């Protein structure tokens, strides 16, 4: 694996290889000394041209735990704010000696452009591009679900997929790179994926995605999902009114206390206790109630912790890539 750009082209075997490698990294993260020499002497640049907390810190922790040298780069305070192009920016980073560039960019397709441009020889990892893709978020979500599934069956999660699981992804699908990446990856791993959203928050072409679409959250929850992934309403990307009001959105599409109680009482297809997921940050009271956000069934912090293991696995694999393989 030379680059990681999206989950659309990530095959079953490659996805499992990342998840299985992450299991090994998780064992490292449970040790007193959380360190491996895997990337000693390598330089990883975190090129974040959009604001981020969880993803940027997670990639930084992952690279450092693999003994890499880490350079954190943001648009604020850099020549990007003076109008420098992406090409000139990344070529400057390459001249400094970047072996991998982890990039978050506001433009959909930016990571693909960088990987295919020939501007740099570095490995490229997409940390989120516009509304297009966020592959490591989808991988850490799948990793979290796989561990929950294995725990419920009392088996080792290594080598297993998500066959039999039903996952409902709810809310602002239109602006969510997390939703796109999760739909494709979860489908590849064998899960049954349902997308639940108002028509105004569904993208054109969603019918070609490997998932079922419903306009009723209550209908989706009645099918006893194993996981409900609530998405943040991305108000900063909305140029108009996509729903009548915040209160109306919560009544129809929010995981309210009543919906959460019903979800908990019904059980899932394979998990006796369904889980609530969220990529963060959560808008409490809008898409998710306090009872669900603070419940032990909520995997938000578990997802954050698993994100370090996944990103360690990805950096290890792209920087120890066999060009003949």
Descriptive keywords:
single chain; 325 residues; alpha/beta; Rossmann fold; 2 domains; 5-stranded parallel beta sheet; 39% helix; Aspartate carbamoyltransferase; pyrimidine biosynthesis; EC 2.1.3.2; Asp/Orn_carbamoyltranf_P-bd
Please, could you describe this protein's structure?
With about 325 residues, this protein is α/β, with parallel strands linked by helices. It has 2 domains: about 10-135 and about 305-320, Rossmann fold, CATH 3.40.50.1370; about 135-300, Aspartate/ornithine carbamoyltransferase (Rossmann fold, 3-Layer(aba) Sandwich). The protein contains 11 helices and 9 strands. It has helices spanning about 10-30, 55-65, 85-95, 110-115, 135-155, 175-190, 215-220, 245-255, 255-265, 290-295, 300-320; strands at about 45-50, 70-75, 100-105, 125-130, 165-170, 190-195, 210-215, 225-230, 275. The strands form 2 sheets. Strands 7-6-5-8-9 form a 5-stranded parallel sheet. Helix 1 (about 10-30) crosses helix 5, helix 1 (about 10-30) packs across helix 11 and helix 2 crosses helix 11 (about 300-320). The protein is globular, with a radius of gyration of 19 Å. The mean pLDDT is about 90. This is Aspartate carbamoyltransferase. GO terms for molecular function: aspartate carbamoyltransferase activity. Keywords: Pyrimidine biosynthesis, Transferase.
